[in-house]
Amino acid sequence: MSVLPVTVLVVAKAPEPGFAKTRLAATVGDRVAADIAAAALLDTLDAVAAAPVAARVVALTGNLDNAAAATDIRQRLEAFTVIAQRGDGFADRLANAHADAADGYPVLQIGMDTPQVSAGLLTVCAQRLLETPAVLGLALDGGWWVLGVHTPAAAECLRGIPMSQSDTGELTLKALRHDGIEATTVAALADVDVIDDLAVVRDACAPDSRFARVTRAAGL
């Protein structure tokens, strides 16, 4: 397949114990939660690296020196352009990341909470983005896991949207439409926030994925 003129942007947080997946950590402990977050991030980066896109960017926050699987993450990031997240709240950081990652291509942005994402699914999303004004993939908890837009200006609507709520996805879709941007929806995915999410996401991952191996090894 030819290279698609799209930038895939991964918005990520260094999986530091005590700071990574805090809702999950309340049940499984800080270290295990960080190990799971690291596995999810690495599986996500593998999928992005295998997708036939023109550019790959990671907007990163946190300290990799203290992160789980720090060496593996640093090695994987060598295949990416890494930029720092900036902004006070998560919504601002998302909008700013779109602006900072823009290099003339449409930007397809994902997080690190859906390790079941595949290069094939990202390819479908990128192709849809090239054919439509925007793409949005809803998360089963009411948020969203992927957003694709053609310009940083189209992502500005994120600044006014409350994040991590049960209606974040719906509000994002409405905000895009309010700005005259009709978004095509793509596959909905479960993301990883709490312990009840682990089995659902693991079942959607490849059996030999890092996420599957780490969660099985933890007995979860």
TrEMBL record:
Gene3D superfamilies: Spore Coat Polysaccharide Biosynthesis Protein SpsA, Chain A. Transmembrane segments: none annotated. InterPro entries: Nucleotide-diphossugar_trans, Trfase_1_rSAM/seldom-assoc. It holds the Pfam family DUF2064. It comes from the Bacteria. This is 2-phospho-L-lactate guanylyltransferase. It comes from Mycobacterium pseudokansasii. The lineage of its organism: Bacteria, Bacillati, Actinomycetota, Actinomycetes, Mycobacteriales.
